[in-house]
């Protein structure tokens, strides 16, 4: 009996990148790079992906907390 891990793949390889907003399935158009100084070292980079519709919501969410470092077009972010 062999085990498979088809349900455990954590790779984002061929999966379409989608918006990080909960329950949003829209393709990512923006990458929001952020860091929470309380829990992350300064060189740590967290990334949220956002569609056009939720870019404002997510960037404001991070912005008001002082977490947002930069917002770049997803195409540029990948390249
Ligand atoms: Zn979205």
UniProtKB/TrEMBL annotation:
Highest taxon listed in the record's lineage: Bacteria
Region (Disordered): 1-20
Protein name (database record): Acetone carboxylase
